[in-house]
Design brief:
single chain, globular
Length: about 300
């Protein structure tokens, strides 16, 4: 279930990097290649966020990636904090195998461990409290987010920092007026994905509705909120092949997940955008870009 490197809940779901399914169940293992390629594309955002975190966390002994997926970001933490041990925690064992392989390939395997299990309970298997605990869009896959944050806080060392990536803005890939179909397609897709996300949240075990005031929730978990900052991913047109592939994969997941709720005109437009043989498709059109905003909230456990 829970991992990150998601993007928006809107992407909410090609984002753990996540992907939508027809229902609200998500097969993260099936999405592994997409999760990896997306996290690699988003590396500039993660590196910028880590540099910001590094102003407060100078030499962490233990960095925990709670909801790590295939470990792309976990390995970036190992790069950003070269003296730290990094532990990737995730509920999908095959993704953790990919994480271990990546760490070995990048030469950080000697400082890299994994813990398999569902959040937040799996954190109980850490051998020491975390100096930095990173949770990137894993929290919103847990039914009781307030209780989960309290559990996360309980696994921080005194002076340890919890960094929570939640929220931001829906990403944009195309002009408002595409030249085909009715203008504003992405805004209409966003609305359908918000509805999908609400259903996904409601169907989680022990789901509790919560005002998503993350600083207030961090404070309620017994932590001191220390900062909020939003990081941009700005890949202007013309997109390179990797960005195009990401846009196509994202829109394909959206088509699969919420396409039936579109009206016939929008469905036809989306199908044209995804048809590699169509000159209006995202595979070839010159105006494809990627623009997204990703918000990180930080809080410290008092010493």
């Amino acid at each position: 279930m829970a991992h990150a490197h998601h993007e928006q809940h809107h992407q909410h779901h090609t984002g753990h990097g996540h992907g939508h399914a027809h229902g609200t169940d998500i097969d993260w293992n099936e999405l592994a290649p997409l999760l990896e390629s997306q996290a690699e594309l988003f590396a500039p955002v993660y590196r910028e966020a880590m540099a910001w975190l590094g102003q407060d966390v100078t030499e962490p002994g233990l960095v925990v990636d709670a909801g790590s997926g295939p470990g792309v970001v976990s390995c970036l933490f190992a790069e950003a904090f070269p003296t730290a041990r990094v532990v990737a925690v995730d509920g999908t064992a095959p993704l953790l195998e990919r994480a271990r392989d990546r760490a070995a390939r990048l030469g950080v395997g000697d400082r890299f461990d994994t813990v398999a299990g569902e959040l937040p309970e799996a954190l109980g298997r850490l051998d020491r409290p975390a100096d930095l605990l990173w949770a990137s869009r894993s929290l919103h896959h847990l039914g009781d987010q307030r209780a989960a944050l309290t559990a996360f806080a309980g696994h921080l060392a005194p002076g340890g920092i919890l960094a929570l990536l939640e929220g931001g803005l829906p990403s944009r890939f195309l002009p408002r007026d595409l030249g085909i179909g009715r203008p504003g397609l992405q805004a209409r897709l966003d609305a359908l994905e918000e509805e999908w996300f609400a259903r996904m949240r409601a169907e989680l075990p022990g789901s509790v509705a919560e005002t998503e005031d993350w600083p207030a929730l961090l404070t309620a978990a017994g932590l001191k909120h220390t900062g909020t900052r939003t990081f941009l991913l700005d890949l202007p047109a013309p997109a390179d092949d990797r960005a195009r592939a990401y846009v196509a994969a994202h829109l394909s997941r959206v088509r699969e997940g919420v396409g039936d709720a579109l009206d016939a005109d929008d469905r036809a437009t989306l199908d044209r955008l995804l048809d590699p043989s169509d000159p209006a498709s995202v595979h070839v059109r010159p105006d494809v870009f990627v623009l997204g905003a990703y918000t990180v909230h930080t809080a410290v456990r008092r010493g």
